[in-house]
Amino acid sequence: MQILVVEDEPKRSIPLTRGLTEGGHRVAVCTGADRALAEFRNSDFDIVLLDWSRCDATGLDLVRSFASASPTPVICLGGDVDVASRVAALRAGADEVLNKPVALEELVARLEALQRRISIASGHKILAGATLDARRHALVKGQTETRLTAREFSLLAHLADHVGTAVSRADLLARVWGQGFVGEGNVVDVYVGYVRHKLRQAIGDAARIEAVRGVGYRLVVQG
Q1: Which one of 61, 63, 137, 221 is at 20 to 30 Å from 92 when CA atoms are compared?
Q2: What is 124-221's CATH topology?
Q3: Which CATH class name applies to 2-118?
Q4: Residue 6, SS3?
Q5: Sign of CA dihedral 181, 83, 53, 34
């Protein structure tokens, strides 16, 4: 993988950079927001790792800039991150927030798992007159494009593979977040809320995600 590490203290990134490089990954390290965005836009990165100490208002703006420019996953790293901070980062466009310290082996495994989950078969799915575009991670209808984060796209794509069928929360959690996910139990419900909002933006009431009591969720398409 080609990884962009955004770190405000270059010396702190040395062990991480060395470990990722020794694992066969290509790593670029940036310390400033402007430089990081320029590097991001000029290269084809697979993952962005953003050190949590940058996720104040400026850091969250940087996450939004990454998310709006490309579907490339953004992972925030931080120490003892509280719920409000995690929610702010996720709503800004981050795909995952990990507490430091995190073992290099675990971090690499998470990166690889995220890549596997977002590398959904190439091609397009037609959803109520809109195109669910795997390359752009977006719902496209006419000239309007509604961008999705990597997790939002994976969740909607999995539901789209089972239109009309109830999919359990456990299945969504395993497929979108991975079997080893450790986090808030309501993360599926939170992300369903995000996807519902973007579905309404893109195609109105032509498709909707219904809650199925005691099971999970079902994607329903009109017509």
Answers
A1: 221
A2: Arc Repressor Mutant, subunit A (1.10.10)
A3: alpha beta
A4: strand
A5: positive
The predicted model gives 29-58 an average pLDDT of: 80
One-letter amino acid at 143 equals Q
Site of tokens 């675990």: 106
Return the residue matching tokens 């069928």.
165
Classify the C-alpha dihedral 30-32-35-39 as positive or negative.
positive
Q: Where are the domains of the chain?
A: 2-118, 124-221
Residue 143 token pair = 């000239």
63: tokens are 């996450």
Amino acid occupying residue 122: S
What's the pLDDT at 132?
87
Q: Where are the alpha helices (DSSP H) in 7-118?
A: 14-22, 33-42, 57-69, 83-92, 104-118
Question: Is 50 exceeded by the pLDDT of residue 122?
Answer: no
| Three-state DSSP state, 178 | coil
The pTM is what? 0.55
